[in-house]
Design a protein that fits this description.
transmembrane helix, ten-stranded mixed β-sheet, ABC3_permease_C, alpha+beta, about 750 residues
Length: about 750
């Protein structure tokens, strides 16, 4: 009888081995499915970007002979981003159309995505449709980054997109393009990074689940293999038997995980990222990588099973009849501070150069790995405390168990520790990243504004106001030309110290559109310049450049300066009355600003876009919307990953607790036969599971917070934002450990109901 036949025979006759094999297969299936899903995410983002490459002319525009003039821009409606591509064909024969685009629109025509078409049908033209043109066709899904994407392809004549003529008409100037891109797109860097973190956060609890399932019959298997060794079986034969027994369930689980992966891909299509969901075709892996994953995970499980037989192979008498437990050495505690010091060194190096970021990842791995050394020692120390200070029999039993097998006891909480560590790290980083969000705009929150050429600002402002009046809006655009005031003596530097941005407009207009703290009550008829601080105008000049020795300057002269209270401090811009601007001074730039209300914001945007082009229109709301979307994406993925990790950790804790009962079935059976109540044994098992979990999860929470502080320092010197939610992973971890320990009572009742001589 070969090893495979023997493994099948054992599975047929031994119910507990069969249960262990089924749970191992389930754990391998979960691990395989999760790894396949995580591995395919970078390829999914790459497929997305491949479809959407044509939408961004900046990345594929080239100098030289061109067949197209293309300009890409962003527009917004009701907080939703609209991707706009203006295009003119100069050489039709040289153009290869992207997938999803059957033909290019003629001048004055547009092609829109299905979702944008629906939006146009239910929205008045003066709020949205007048920005583009007449839709004549729909873009296919293969031309969209995600199914819900709002995209418009606007056709123009070549003359419209060539230089100044178009600049005067709609503010769009096309880039010369030889053809639509045919190169391979790059995957999303952020999601690729999160994928790597997810592999650790989810794969480790999955493998712990597999190990816990295998431990259900670890003692019985070790005794069986030791008996075979004593009966004359060679180490190779015993190893083959274990490999066949473990490999059978692992291979079945890996194939089940492969069959499960399409369902996981289908669920993943509903999780938004970067503004929208996914196409089902996005989730695919190269065949070579797919085969490697499906083969590697069962191989690791088989290797772990074989390595677990070291004692049965080398000392079968000890494996069959018991062995002396070796105490854990104190040097295990050194691994955590050593890993922490290396991580701190990596953080300090990473702040100075990009090359240090690899060291940061290594340091993070070492911190996580040190938990596998420190955790069992802490578990043993807790057990020693129970033995010395016990007041109940259950406490003594729990302490003896933790002292005798700290590695096995810690195994039940290993997945929980990692989940708590990752959760604390994430809840340190996310609020801190959210605190970085902001907008440097100096205009009021409700305003829409666009930068334009100073020599065209007045004419374009009149055009916008004419369109607003035609649409019935009471809002009016204001031109905000800007000059620079610089010290008359001394060089200007690149940090712009001593240089003040000054808007040349009436005080009444400034009070309406500029976020200064300046109100109409501060406007005085005899004041020429309004500043948030004391200012001596005779020491300053009007400059035509931010810095540079060759800048042209005109003395500002003596003028009446008024001061206004500003919450923005000294960085707030100045306001100069147009009549006070020195002769010959020219604005360095100009902005058209239109205050809006919720009722007319889209109508104002449409009027402004028809004159200034949609690409340059900005607002505080859309800036915050972009920031919030990115944070929501990261937060959503983090919550999903940590929830999955917590579920896996809870399952592994429950199975490990059941395995602890099965491993000690003979001991518990003898105690129950001697009259020990099941409730006492249940309390002992809950104690040995819960209290060490409390200690190590608190430690994992602290370590995760400290690591989060270090990672945040790489990207910002701002203070870290700490919230009460940092306690949530620790509380959740302890709760999961308690739920996992709750299976001990049913397992003990089963032991009590079965004859002891079964062993």
């Amino acid at each position: 009888m070969n090893a495979f036949q023997l493994a099948l025979r054992v599975l047929r006759v031994d119910r507990r081995t069969r249960t262990s094999a089924i749970l191992t297969a389930v754990g391998v299936a979960v691990a395989t499915g999760l790894v396949l899903l995580l591995a395919t995410l970078p390829f999914a983002t790459q497929a997305r970007e491949q479809r959407a490459q044509w939408q961004d002319a900046y990345w594929y525009a080239k100098e030289g002979k061109s067949a197209l003039l293309v300009q890409s821009s962003k527009d917004y409606f009701d907080g939703k981003e609209i991707r706009r591509v203006d295009l003119a064909v100069t050489d039709p024969g040289a153009v290869h159309l992207p997938a999803g685009i059957d033909k290019l629109p003629a001048p004055g025509q547009t092609m829109v995505s299905p979702e944008l078409g629906k939006l146009l049908n239910r929205t008045p033209a003066n709020q949205l449709g007048d920005r583009f043109g007449k839709p004549v066709a729909a873009l296919g899904e293969q031309a969209l980054r995600y199914p819900e994407q709002l995209v418009v392809l606007v056709g123009h004549s070549p003359q419209e997109l060539q230089g100044a003529s178009q600049e005067a008409k709609s503010g769009v100037a096309g880039r010369p393009v030889a053809d639509f891109p045919q190169t391979e797109a790059e995957p999303d860097g952020m999601l690729t990074l999160l994928t790597g973190v997810g592999v650790v956060v989810l794969l480790v609890p999955s493998l712990v689940l597999v190990a816990s399932s295998a431990r259900l019959t670890a003692a019985r298997r070790e005794q069986r293999m030791a008996a075979l060794r004593l009966a004359g079986a060679t180490p190779g034969q015993v190893t083959s038997m274990v490999a066949a027994e473990t490999g059978l369930s692992a291979v079945v689980g890996a194939l089940a995980g492969l069959l499960l992966s399409p369902a996981l891909y289908g669920l993943a299509t509903f999780v938004p990222w970067g503004g929208g969901t996914w196409l089902s075709s996005d989730f695919s892996l190269p065949v070579g990588l797919l085969v490697a994953i499906v083969v590697a995970i069962p191989a690791l499980v088989v290797l772990a099973g074989v390595l677990g037989l070291r004692r049965a192979l080398s000392t079968p008498l000890f494996a069959g009849g018991g062995h002396q437990v070796k105490p854990l050495h104190w040097w295990r505690l050194l691994s955590l501070p050593v890993a922490g010091l290396f991580f701190l060194y990596a953080i300090m190096t990473g702040r100075d150069s990009n090359s240090g970021q690899e060291l940061v990842l290594v340091g993070l791995f070492l911190v996580v790995g040190s938990a596998m050394l420190v955790g069992p020692w802490v578990t043993s120390a807790v057990g020693g405390t129970f033995v010395r200070m016990w007041r109940r029999p259950s406490t003594l039993l729990a302490g003896r168990r933790l002292r005798e097998d700290p590695k096995g006891a810690y195994r039940a909480t290993a997945g929980i520790v990692l989940a708590v560590f990752a959760g604390s790290m994430g809840l340190t980083l996310l609020p801190s990243f959210a605190s970085l969000g902001g907008d440097s705009s100096k205009f009021v929150d409700s305003a829409l504004y666009a930068d334009v050429r100073p020599d065209k600002a007045e004419a374009m402002t009149e055009q916008v106001n004419r369109k607003l009046a035609e649409g019935g809006s009471r809002e009016r655009a204001v031109a905000a030309p800007a000059v620079l005031l610089s010290k008359a003596s001394g060089k200007k530097d690149k940090d712009q110290e001593g240089v003040y941005l000054t808007y040349v407009m009436t005080c009444a207009d400034a009070a309406k559109v500029i976020r200064l703290g300046l109100t109409e009550k501060d406007c005085k008829p005899d004041v020429d310049l309004y500043t948030p601080e004391g200012f001596d105008a005779t020491k300053y000049v009007v400059a035509n450049d931010f810095f540079g020795e060759g800048a042209t300057t005109i003395p500002l002269g003596s003028m009446q300066v008024g001061r206004y209270p500003s919450g923005s401090g000294a960085s707030a811009p100045f306001v100069m009355e147009p009549t006070a601007l020195p002769a010959g001074a020219q604005p360095v730039d100009s902005t058209i600003v239109v205050p809006t209300t919720d009722a007319d914001r889209e109508q104002v945007r449409t009027a402004l876009a028809s004159v200034a082009g949609s690409s340059g229109i900005r607002s505080r709301d859309q800036h915050f919307n972009d920031q919030q979307r990115e944070l929501d994406d990261v937060r959503r993925v983090t919550v999903i990953g940590l929830t999955a990790a917590a579920i896996l950790a809870g399952c592994s804790a429950a199975i490990a607790t059941a395995g602890a009962v099965m491993d000690r079935r003979r001991t518990f059976g003898a105690l129950i036969a001697a009259g020990t109540p099941v409730r006492v044994l249940s309390r002992a098992l809950r104690t040995e599971a819960a209290l060490p979990s409390l200690v190590v999860t608190i430690g994992a929470g602290v370590a995760g917070t400290l690591v989060g502080l270090g990672l945040f320092s790489l990207v910002s010197h701002n203070p870290v934002t700490l919230t009460p939610w940092l306690l949530a992973p620790v509380v959740l971890g302890v709760g999961v450990a308690l739920l996992g320990a709750s299976v001990c009572t049913p397992a003990l009742k089963r032991v009590a109901a079965e004859p002891l001589n079964d062993e």
